[in-house]
Every structure is written in structure tokens, then in C-alpha cells.
Amino acid sequence: MLVSDLVNGILTKINAIAPGEPIAPEDSTLVLAAINLYLDSLNAGVKKSLFAVYDPALFTFNPVADLVNLTDPITLPTGWPRALLFNVAVDVGPDFGKQPDQALIAKAAESRAAILTPLPPPPQQA
């Protein structure tokens, strides 16, 4: 998947564009900025969840880098593309005059929770 595919999916999800319709550069810029803000939020949430359970001295958290170019391929952890798609769609919908419906809002909440659910505690050593 490319960054442009994610942007297109977000705009399609809120019916701001039809599938396959070209995206105006200013719309791409707005959505890409929202994606990066959401990535920052996910990075912070995952780090907080991870270090609430595991000793930060024993683990390193590598945040997902911001997305820069629409033509770049995306490599994201499991569940993150779905969370980005639904949550950013909810966030930017009003910018495009689109109010997200309850189904989209529910999918956004569920996909975010799937990423930010605290990890199980590490097994106790005997």
C-alpha cells in the first residue's frame, strides 16, 4: 500500500470522493497532516501502554515514522492501517462537510482500542 492509497481510502470512506477519483493536492495535504497527527497519538498511546507493563530499561519502543510522500510505500504494524483509515476519516470528515455515521465512529473506536489495549503482563520468573 502507498500513502496515496491510504489518503484515497480515507476520502472514499467519508464519501468526499468517489472510488478512483483524483484527489486535489490541498485535500491530500490536509489528510496527510491528519494522518501524521494520528500516528503521533498512536505512538504515544502504544508507548504508554507498553511501559505500563514492561520495564523501559529492558525494551525499546520504535515509533512509527511520519508519512511524507504520497508515493511512498507504507509499512505499519498489524492493525495500524485500519485504525488510521477509520480514525482519520472520522477526524477529517467535518473538514469536507461530511459527518461520520455511527458505524464509522464505532469502527474507529474498535480499531483504536485493538492497538491501545494494554498488553498482558510478562510471565513471572520462578
Structure explained in plain terms:
The chain is mainly alpha-helical. The chain has one domain. Helix 1 crosses helix 2, helix 2 packs across helix 3 and helix 3 packs across helix 4. The relative contact order is 0.20.
- As a percent range, the share of helical residues equals 40-55%
Low-pLDDT residue spans: none
The H/E string reads HHHH
Q: Assign an overall shape.
A: elongated
The radius of gyration over CA amounts to 16 Å
Report the major sheet: none
| Cα end-to-end separation | 45 Å
Q: Into how many domains do the coordinates divide?
A: 1
Mean pLDDT: 92
- Taken as a percent bin, the fraction of beta residues is under 5%
The total of helices stands at 4
Overall structural class, as computed from helix and strand content, comes to mainly alpha
List the helices and strands and how they pair.
Layout: H1 3-13, H2 25-53, H3 80-92, H4 102-116
Helix pairs in contact: 1-2, 1-3, 2-3, 3-4
Q: What features would you highlight for this structure?
A:
126 residues; mainly alpha
What can be said about this structure in brief?
The chain contains four helices and no strands. It has helices at 3-13, 25-53, 80-92, 102-116.
